[in-house]
């Protein structure tokens, strides 16, 4: 029988780790250095060599109303995540506190939404948005995005709330607290890691969302960042440095949020999916 000692395992694990690191780092490195190249250097220089840095691509990005698209994305993300957090938290609290046949049925119906792909419902969503008069507005992006994010958010929050001891809820009731006061003063602080998880996870999805902005908006004034990347594609040429410069700028806000909230996000996902 062939035995492999711990040292060999460590070497193999370290090698695989370095390979994975290279797979992740090299594309990021390429995006950043290419955004600092001129269009002419794209086809003449080594793609991984250090460029003669120029900010021309970033200047072209901001010359194309990019700040408007950033502000639209910020507004859509903030409003969508706010709706998701409020609705998901209140529904999750009801499901956990009632713990009867009705709440279990509601939970099952909500979780069923995880099995429905967004692409399969785009035509009904399109007709609904037109019928209620929201087509080509930012709310046409916000409402469907929030609706499709609620199922997974509820699943994460419900699993967190189920870990709160029932004795704490009973103590609040004995002290004369209303159900709303119990929800705000007890449940809300207890599920803070889960709320941060939902916030970051859904903010990432909404910020990078492409399908709803593409189908449900039309005018340039309602364009968000993913759609704005099309501006750098001409009829016969593609401004590669411009596209990658826009990508770098668009990633910075969401990357910052992830860096500061990654611990809570990992804790929330572990509890939300581990049951």
TrEMBL record:
<feature type="transmembrane region" description="Helical">
    <location>
        <begin position="138"/>
        <end position="161"/>
    </location>
</feature>
<keyword id="KW-0812">Transmembrane</keyword>
<keyword id="KW-0472">Membrane</keyword>
<dbReference type="Pfam" id="PF00528">
    <property type="entry name" value="BPD_transp_1"/>
</dbReference>
<keyword id="KW-1133">Transmembrane helix</keyword>
<feature type="transmembrane region" description="Helical">
    <location>
        <begin position="108"/>
        <end position="132"/>
    </location>
</feature>
<feature type="transmembrane region" description="Helical">
    <location>
        <begin position="236"/>
        <end position="260"/>
    </location>
</feature>
<dbReference type="GO" id="GO:0055085">
    <property type="term" value="P:transmembrane transport"/>
</dbReference>
<keyword id="KW-0813">Transport</keyword>
<feature type="transmembrane region" description="Helical">
    <location>
        <begin position="74"/>
        <end position="96"/>
    </location>
</feature>
<comment type="similarity">
    <text>Belongs to the binding-protein-dependent transport system permease family.</text>
</comment>
<dbReference type="InterPro" id="IPR035906">
    <property type="entry name" value="MetI-like_sf"/>
</dbReference>
<protein>
    <submittedName>
        <fullName>ABC transporter permease</fullName>
    </submittedName>
</protein>
<feature type="transmembrane region" description="Helical">
    <location>
        <begin position="12"/>
        <end position="33"/>
    </location>
</feature>
<dbReference type="InterPro" id="IPR000515">
    <property type="entry name" value="MetI-like"/>
</dbReference>
<keyword id="KW-1003">Cell membrane</keyword>
<dbReference type="GO" id="GO:0005886">
    <property type="term" value="C:plasma membrane"/>
</dbReference>
<feature type="domain" description="ABC transmembrane type-1">
    <location>
        <begin position="70"/>
        <end position="261"/>
    </location>
</feature>
<feature type="transmembrane region" description="Helical">
    <location>
        <begin position="194"/>
        <end position="216"/>
    </location>
</feature>
């Amino acid at each position: 029988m062939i035995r492999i000692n711990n040292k060999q395992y460590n070497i193999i694990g370290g090698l695989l780790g370095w390979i994975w690191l290279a797979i992740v780092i090299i594309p990021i490195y390429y995006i950043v250095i290419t955004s600092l190249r001129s269009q002419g250097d794209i086809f003449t220089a080594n793609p991984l060599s250090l460029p003669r840095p120029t900010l021309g691509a970033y200047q072209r990005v901001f010359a194309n109303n990019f700040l408007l698209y950033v502000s639209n994305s910020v507004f859509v993300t903030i409003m969508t995540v706010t709706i998701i957090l409020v609705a998901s938290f209140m529904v999750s609290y009801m499901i956990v506190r009632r713990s009867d046949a009705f709440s279990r049925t509601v939970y099952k119906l909500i979780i069923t939404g995880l099995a429905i792909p967004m692409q399969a419902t785009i035509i009904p969503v399109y007709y609904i948005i037109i019928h209620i008069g929201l087509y080509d507005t930012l709310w046409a992006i916000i409402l469907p995005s929030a609706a499709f994010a609620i199922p997974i958010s509820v699943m994460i929050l419900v699993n967190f709330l189920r870990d709160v001891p029932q004795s704490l809820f009973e103590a609040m009731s004995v002290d004369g607290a209303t159900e709303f006061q119990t929800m705000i003063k007890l449940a809300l602080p207890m599920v803070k890691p889960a709320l941060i998880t939902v916030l970051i996870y859904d903010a990432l999805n909404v910020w990078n969302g492409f399908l709803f902005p593409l189908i449900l908006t039309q005018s340039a004034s309602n364009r968000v960042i993913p759609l704005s990347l099309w501006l750098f594609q001409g009829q016969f040429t593609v401004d590669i440095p411009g596209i990658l410069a826009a990508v770098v700028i668009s990633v910075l806000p969401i990357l910052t949020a992830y860096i500061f909230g990654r611990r809570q996000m990992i804790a929330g996902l572990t509890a939300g999916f581990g049951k």
